[in-house]
């Protein structure tokens, strides 16, 4: 029976010091359905998932899985019980091989009880192949990009014969092609009767994949709907607790500004760096928001890293405010007024055990210190300002940042760089994992900042985000600039056709 529940969570309560993360949440998932768990940053989605999967212990409520009451004490117990989780941040053991990660502890044994590696590799390879991924399984997972690592996590779930697979923002680090592969795999799991809980802040994905939607808001259960019952506007309204009319007013389009007459802030001429940056030239003007579009691996982040002094260039010229610069460190770049908010908040951004206050002011400390002493007053002013301005959800500035929800961590990072008052701010995937409400807040912030004269270079895998927020878009493919789109030319179709077009570069620009 297709609509028999495989999972029933009732009245789940979870409190952390100062936070009531779940206030009696109910959640029911049917066999073989793809069920979206929706809510703003900090609504309690990941907490609910972590309680189900034994990462956290609940303070109240009951859980039934596959007709039995369960209370998993550890993630391993949950896995053995038939629930596999693909976490928001990939959770593999990086130095182990793909095979070891897929099979982890269930490797086939040879005669003497040793692991039969030949068989193990074959099994891992087959599982991945069935998902359309053909890779060398003897390599360490750390040798592969996030997308592949994600697939390895899913392969592990498949090989463990899970009855319920939970995916907490699996697509946030995947490009379009990889998302397609993931969706195919999800459909395949579904056809085998496996239920999937899917968390994503990208509404198009929800509507493409899911059968039902459950909405949480501030730790409360708001409701569960069939997908047909809840259009996008209704969904957003439920998530943020506002009326549909108010939601409509939120979704305005940025007015495009031609900034070509303004001073040039940064100019790249024939910049090269390693294999990823082959030949990049462009200018960015004062108060302009310039987008870098391209597929994963097109060199967008690598270009950003050269400008931000993280990577040195091999060849070419970099000019900033009219003078040539040669940066050898991010520190130098920051001193000049170039800041970057990197895409990988977990490894390159946040300091998990530091407080929100410390994380926000980490970069601007020299500016608020005298004789090596930090002015606590100034620090608090800055922290309060940004917590308010960006709507960062935290019980106090002293909360460790690792305890904030993913989206709120991202806002803290952004605040850190804004607090430096840079001339040029590079945003690499600034709204990844950020909910619709916060996303539109960040978008209007970008708009405001550019009006105040800040120049922004924005990288996003979501083309509609680029179109909505930039004045001009440069398209990259394989480390080469292959096109530029101005004003009304900035459409999804045009970006795609510039990326897809293998022809002569000049010709492409001519066409558009
Ligand atoms: N270990 C923890 N200690 C303290 N507070 C926590 C902890 N984990 C989560 N929280 C708090 O619980 C609330 C719910 O967080 P949760 O991570 O479940 O949100 P989420 O819905 O997954 O958000 P996002 O979309 O940003 O991932 C937040 O206010 C968060 O700060
Ligand atoms: Mg989360």
From TrEMBL:
<dbReference type="Pfam" id="PF00005">
    <property type="entry name" value="ABC_tran"/>
</dbReference>
<keyword id="KW-1003">Cell membrane</keyword>
<protein>
    <submittedName>
        <fullName>Sugar ABC transporter ATP-binding protein</fullName>
    </submittedName>
</protein>
<keyword id="KW-0472">Membrane</keyword>
<dbReference type="GO" id="GO:0005886">
    <property type="term" value="C:plasma membrane"/>
</dbReference>
<dbReference type="InterPro" id="IPR027417">
    <property type="entry name" value="P-loop_NTPase"/>
</dbReference>
<dbReference type="InterPro" id="IPR003593">
    <property type="entry name" value="AAA+_ATPase"/>
</dbReference>
<keyword id="KW-1278">Translocase</keyword>
<keyword id="KW-0677">Repeat</keyword>
<dbReference type="InterPro" id="IPR017871">
    <property type="entry name" value="ABC_transporter-like_CS"/>
</dbReference>
<keyword id="KW-0547">Nucleotide-binding</keyword>
<dbReference type="GO" id="GO:0016887">
    <property type="term" value="F:ATP hydrolysis activity"/>
</dbReference>
<keyword id="KW-0067">ATP-binding</keyword>
<dbReference type="GO" id="GO:0005524">
    <property type="term" value="F:ATP binding"/>
</dbReference>
<keyword id="KW-0813">Transport</keyword>
<dbReference type="InterPro" id="IPR050107">
    <property type="entry name" value="ABC_carbohydrate_import_ATPase"/>
</dbReference>
<feature type="domain" description="ABC transporter">
    <location>
        <begin position="7"/>
        <end position="243"/>
    </location>
</feature>
<dbReference type="InterPro" id="IPR003439">
    <property type="entry name" value="ABC_transporter-like_ATP-bd"/>
</dbReference>
<feature type="domain" description="ABC transporter">
    <location>
        <begin position="259"/>
        <end position="503"/>
    </location>
</feature>
